[in-house]
Amino acid sequence: MSTGDDVRAAVSARRDLGPEYEDAVVESFIDKMSAEIDRRVDERVARLPSAKQVARQSSRSDGMRLALAIVSLVMGTAATIVLLALDASTGGLIWIWGGLAMVNWAFASGMGERKS
Question: Buried (b) or exposed (e) across 65-86, using 16+ Cβ within 10 A?
């Protein structure tokens, strides 16, 4: 039965039973509406991811960010040492660190899109 049907039924029952049963009719209607609201809320809550799932996804993405940052720093530092040892130009350093920055930026941008 829809909400509109419930309202019509309550009004009709009140009319048929008279004003002395008004409190009982209203109370019955409120109980039905409360049960319907509870049912709808339960359905919506059941569709939401659990707190455990959200925490697991969050810790995974945090771990991935940390790992990428560490790998980027290690590779960038190693490449810098090699280029300085070879007396290479600073242009190579700009390309290496710029590339690492772009990879990190792309990863962070992709993670933000996946979360929403």
Answer: eeebeeebeeebeebeeebeee
Structure tokens at 53: 């799932």
- The Cβ-side half-sphere exposure at 64, using a 13 Å CA radius, reads 13
Going by C-beta distance under 8 Å and a sequence separation of 6 or more, which residues neighbour residue 7? 29
Q: How far is CA 87 from the centre of its chain?
A: 49
For 3-26, write each residue's pLDDT tens digit: 677 777 877 887 888 878 778 888
pLDDT confidence of residue 115: 47
* Entry field: residues in the chain: 116
65 with 107: CB under 8 angstroms?
yes
Per-residue model confidence as pLDDT tens digits over 66-99: 888 888 888 888 888 888 888 777 788 888 889 8
Token digits of residue 10:
């309550």
